Every structure is written in C-alpha cells, then in structure tokens.
Amino acid sequence: MALDDCEELLTIGVDLGGTSLRIAAYVAGSGVVDSTTLRTRLEAGPLAVVDDMCEAIENLLGRHLEGRELAGIGVGSPGPLELPAGRLHLPPNLPGWDRFPLLHEMEKRLHRPVILEGDANVAALAEFALGQGKALGVDSLCMLTLGTGVGNGLILNGKLWHGATGMGGEAGHMTIYPDGPLCGCGNHGCLEACASATALVKAAEGMVKGGKARGLARLMEKNGKLTARDLAEAAQLGDADAHSLFSETGRALGICLAGLINILNLPLYVIGGGVAKSWELLSPTMFEELERRSYVYALTAPGRVAARGMSCGGTLVLPALLGADAGLLGACILPLQNAGVADRV
Amino acid sequence: MALDDCEELLTIGVDLGGTSLRIAAYVAGSGVVDSTTLRTRLEAGPLAVVDDMCEAIENLLGRHLEGRELAGIGVGSPGPLELPAGRLHLPPNLPGWDRFPLLHEMEKRLHRPVILEGDANVAALAEFALGQGKALGVDSLCMLTLGTGVGNGLILNGKLWHGATGMGGEAGHMTIYPDGPLCGCGNHGCLEACASATALVKAAEGMVKGGKARGLARLMEKNGKLTARDLAEAAQLGDADAHSLFSETGRALGICLAGLINILNLPLYVIGGGVAKSWELLSPTMFEELERRSYVYALTAPGRVAARGMSCGGTLVLPALLGADAGLLGACILPLQNAGVADRV
C-alpha cells in the first residue's frame, strides 16, 4: 500500500483484553481522536466478541474516515499468538479461544487488512515511537510491563521482533528462581511469578498468613484484601515488610534484565506497568543485581562508557513514559510502522 | 566494495585465542585452502601478537591472492569487544589487553579493511552458513558453545546480532541459579559456571573431595586429574555420578534455553563445543526443562506444530554440525557476509 504523503492518515487501534475491549481512531501526527470501551463478552464466545469489535471499528471509520486515508487497523491481542496466521493458541486470558483464527474472522467482517500483534509487543512499539524510545532516539529497546502479569516486547533495529511463530517477547516467563513460586504458565520462578502485581500481593498475603508483617495484616483486615497500590503506599510510609517486597521485586527484575542485557546488549530497557510506578522502591536492588550479574551492564552503565573512552552509547534502564494507554496507542501506530511511514506517527 | 561476480573470492580468517592464533586463507565456494597456527605470545603484549598475526596474514595473501579478489579479512576475538570501534574491554582471556584498539592496530599494519567480531558470534555465523542453519534453511538461530567457557552468538534475519556496543550474545552469562557457583565474570550461577567443561570438572572434583563418587575418585587418582572427556566416558560406561553431572548440565542448559526461546522464539538453537558431544547424556534433562519452563517450546516443539494445525515451522534444538573449526570458519566467511555475498560462501 502506497500512502499519500499529503493526506491525513487515519488508523484504528484495538486493545483486546480479557476484561475490556478498547478501540480508538488515531490520526497520524495528532493522536487519538475518538475511542470506545466495551466489555469483552467472554461468555458469548470469540465470534460475538469479534462482532462487537468490528461493529465499533465500523462506527469509528464512519465518523472519521471522510477526507482521510486509512493506513490500517492494528490489533494488540493476548498471546500466545501464531503469526502470520493470526490465530491464538491456548491463551490463558481468553479461555475458549484456543486455535481461534482472530485475524481471518476480523478481515472477513471488515473487508480490510488487519495487522495483529501481541499486546505487550504493541505496548513496546508505543514506548519506542512515542515514549522513552523517541525521547532518546534509540533504534532498539526492550520493554517489560509489570502489571497483573509481566508483558515483554522487543524492538530491534526499529522493528517489532515477533519471532518465528509470533511468540517472541516473553521474557515475563524467563526463569529467575528455578524453585521459585508457581507461575500461571506451569513453570516455577518465572519473572511473572516474582515481579508482577499479582506476585507482590501473593507474597504479602503469604507473610500475613505466616504471622509476620503485622502492619500489612492490619491493612488487610481494614481493606478486606491487599493490592499492589496498598503495598506501595505502606512501603512509602515506612513499612519495612512492604519495603522488602519491593526490594525483592527489584531483585527478580534485575536478574531478568541482567540476562537480557548480556544476551541482547540493547541501548534501552523500559519498565512499565503499575508496579513500575514504585521505581524508587524497586530500582535500588534492581541496579544492584545489574552491576553484579551483567558485566555488559557493568561496562556500559551511564557514566561508565565515557569514563572508558567508548564512543558508543551506554545501557539505559528507565521507567516507561507512557501509562496504561501504551497498548492502545501501540495498536494505533502498528499500521503506520507496517506501511513504512513510522516517521509520521 | 563491489565484488566481481566472476572472479574467485579470497578471504582471510583469524581465530584469536588466549592460547593460539589460527589464520586461514579461504576461497569462497571451496573452503580453507591454507592455514597457519601460532602460539599467542601473551607475555610479549598485544602489539607483538598483532605483529605476528599480520605477518601471517601477509604471508597467506602473498601465496593465495594472485588471480583472486580479496573480499576481506575477518577476525574472531575474545570479548568484551566494543564495536564499531574495535577495542577490547577487560577481556578475561587476554590479560593486559584492556582498551587495546585491535581493529585500528591491524588496519594500520595491513592497509586493508578488517572486520572484527566476537569469537562466539563468528562460530554462530559458521553454523548458520555452513552447518545446521544451512542444512535447515532457517533465517535466524542462536548458538551456545559449551567449551572451557560458554560462548553465545545470535543470527537474526540472516545477520549477526552484535548489539549496541558489540557485546551482545552473552547468554553464557545469563543467571541460571542466582545462588549458584561463582563464575569468572564475578556473578553467581551463570550458565558458564554450570554447564561449561570447566564447571563439569569442578563439580566432579567437588564430589570427590566431599568423599562421594568413588568411581570418579579412582579415575582422578589414576589420571592425576579429571577432564570433561573422562567424565563423558565414565558416564557412558555407566558411572551414576558422572551421569548425574551431565544430567545437571542438561538441566542448566535447558533453563537457559527455555528463557531464550521465550524471549526470542527463533526457529533453531544449536549447541556446540566439546560438552555438546555428550548430547545423549545431557539432552534428556535439557528437553525436560524446555517442556516445563517454556510454553513457547511446549507449543512449537517438533510434531506439536503440525498437531496444532500451525502453518509455521517449529522450534528445533540440535547439536552443532561443525566442530572446533567453527570459529575459524566463521572468521573466514565474515567478510562475505559483510559484503552482501553470503550466498557465495
């Protein structure tokens, strides 16, 4: 598809989640101009969800396509995804969608080409094109999103790396502690089982049940349950147990990142998601592990590069600039990247 | 440089090691036509080693360049390397070479362009262009070389991935067991500290010193020391302790590979080096860990892909086809890859 340089480019982005379905109309150079949020009707089955999604897309196109050129429709979907076929395989967050040909069903309804990618991959793309990647002008980055689970996306030489079968970028399931907590994927000690919001809360509940962490026990009694946000507030107010939970999260994250830095030697690693908002709580132990466990980091950390007389850039590990919208924004700009007009985002 | 399609292409490849210096003349399409091995005179300092190397290169050029076109000179060097500057930084296997501008010193003597890469990267390139990668026709692979240390190289979309500063491909220093054995890099529990020939021997010596492993103790007494080859022979003859050492090696390797598969989702992972010759001893536990710890592998293992109706290729983990010459061969073909005539290797 050759896109006209003069015309305004429209894209549609879809953030398909297990709970909600967010759809936006995006004008290149301007941003999101309209959006809709629907409940994901999981109980009605995948075909009904696709119907909902396509109806909302058609509505947005009806309202915003006039006088503009459609660059494409981008969808960020939970994985595992099979690409280029565009099918899901045993997705833990979309029960009943095993082998569902999402891409085919969407294109059948819309009669337009759809671009499908993993949800963590599109979030990485957004951070690359509109967040820290843009701010620093790098050509590659790795993003880890510490939320309910841990998402991961890689941009290598300006392009999303989705791997041979579309399932790349799953550092959230890298083993950190081989005998660590059970993960939803069936493995033990994955980053997701050690550094997600879910893992933080589980670890806190474990402390409370074990008769430790009296401050957190009181908080749990008062609120009925614990959330990652509660824990962050408690840690900031000086609760030593809550603080140690974030230190341990930083440690697991640091072990994972040390591996990624040694393997990939990228210029930038971005940490997003709700847990990353507690940057000052988790980053000290994270950086400690990076220094200990990655000699590539130890040689190329900020300041180190210049001191050693290297002419190349160093290794940066930074919190994300974009918030919870990263996935939706990434889906919106996916068609621009695919059409080779990434400079027009 | 535009290379003539008709003329025979010559390259020079150098495998710079801490013990020996191997230099070969390579004719594209035919292979190595001549080679020299020298001792690496570490005690004489880096400039003397470069003198030796360049003299040997000039000799080979004098004998083989006539009637041929020189595609370039490729060098595989121990790391950490800073690229594109071509300098070493605190290389553990070349003491006294910190900040040595290897590329500059070679080009100054040879008056010809030299291409420098990490030694494990060039071995991966050889396996890609002449070994398992060629046999299977894949466009990307990850190679792990289990020798004295553990080398790693990545080929992504047909090209060596050397990272932002030239230090990529160090999965040998991925943390497998956070509290595991001390590694030469200063970290604990690196793959290199758990799955190299050195690690195998250390673990065996530890068993013997601890009063366990009576068969290995007898072997050690008889031979004066233990080698990885001794251990492989003992395991093949049914020594349960030697067997368990290879099982543990396979387990560490499997944990590392599970991470790499989840992150990169490549079509092929190749295991080379002396330890990998004991494939039948270490691969059962390796595959066990892959199934447990990588859901990407569990979905895309051989046979699994077709059973799930996927149209894409699966994930293969195989022993290397090339032996100890992989590094030298890789250095020889590096100039062909860089000049965009990789099809003429």
Short précis:
The first copy, chain A, contains 13 helices and 12 strands. The first copy, chain A, is α/β, with parallel strands linked by helices and 345 residues long.
Question: Could you characterize what this model shows?
Answer:
The structure is a homodimer of 345-residue chains. Helices cover 42% and strands 20% of the residues of chain A. By secondary structure, chain A is of the alpha/beta class. Chain A has two domains: 8-126 and 325-344, Nucleotidyltransferase, domain 5, CATH 3.30.420; 138-319, ATPase, nucleotide binding domain (Nucleotidyltransferase, domain 5, 2-Layer Sandwich). In chain A, the strands form three sheets. A five-stranded mixed sheet of chain A has the order 3-2-1-4-7, sandwiched between helices. In chain A, strands 10-9-8-11-12 form a five-stranded mixed sheet. In chain A, strands 5-6 form a two-stranded antiparallel ribbon. In chain A, a hairpin with a 3-residue loop joins β1 (8-16) and β2 (20-27). Chain A is globular. The two termini of chain A are 17 Å apart. The model of chain A has no long low-confidence stretch (mean pLDDT 95). The interface between A and B is large, with 59 and 59 residues.
Topology diagram in text:
Two copies of one chain form a homodimer.
Chain A: E1 8-16, E2 20-27, E3 31-39, H1 46-64, E4 68-77, E5 81-82, E6 87-88, H2 102-110, E7 114-118, H3 119-130, H4 132-136, E8 141-146, E9 150-156, E10 159-160, H5 191-195, H6 197-209, H7 214-223, H8 228-236, H9 240-264, E11 268-272, H10 279-293, H11 295-300, H12 304-307, E12 316-319, H13 326-338
Parallel strand pairs in A: 1-4, 4-7, 8-11, 11-12
Antiparallel strand pairs in A: 1-2, 2-3, 5-6, 8-9, 9-10
Helix pairs in contact in A: 1-2, 3-13, 6-7, 8-9, 9-10
